[in-house]
Design goal:
- With about 120 residues, the chain is mainly α.
- The chain is about 85% helix and about 0% strand.
- It is elongated.
- Keywords: Membrane, Transmembrane, Transmembrane helix.
- It comes from Paenibacillus woosongensis.
- InterPro entries: DUF423.
């Protein structure tokens, strides 16, 4: 429980900091296309950081806490792979980094499937 709550809080902090950085420091430096990619990374980062916080709370209320924690680690991996690859792609312009993004999406999906299994 505590681990997921801590991860969620740290990930939310980073999402807000990166979002502010993007809105202020990158807005005039990135093309419109690259800015949209960066913002997509922020959007998924925030959504899944909130998911980590939610899973931290759920893990204290269920007998399937170990599955919930596992789901949380998949969400965390998804943030790193999905959002991280979008941040890197938008900042460097290296399109090949986009090949990593689907791995993060799969990690998100696995995390949510494990969550569904845990609460059933």
């Amino acid at each position: 429980m505590t681990t997921l709550l801590l991860l969620g809080a740290v990930m939310m902090f980073l999402a807000v900091a990166l979002g502010a950085f993007g809105a202020h420091a990158l807005k005039k430096k990135l093309s419109e296309d690259m800015m949209k990619i960066f913002q997509t990374g922020i959007q998924y980062h925030i959504a899944h950081a909130l998911g980590l916080l939610l899973l931290g709370l759920i893990s204290a209320q269920t007998e399937s806490a170990s599955l919930i924690v596992l789901a949380g680690w998949f969400l965390f991996a998804g943030i790193i792979l999905f959002s991280g690859s979008l941040y890197a792609l938008s900042l460097t312009g290296i399109r090949k980094l986009g090949a990593i993004t689907p791995l993060g999406g799969v990690a998100f999906l696995i995390g949510w499937v494990i969550t569904a299994i845990a609460v059933i």
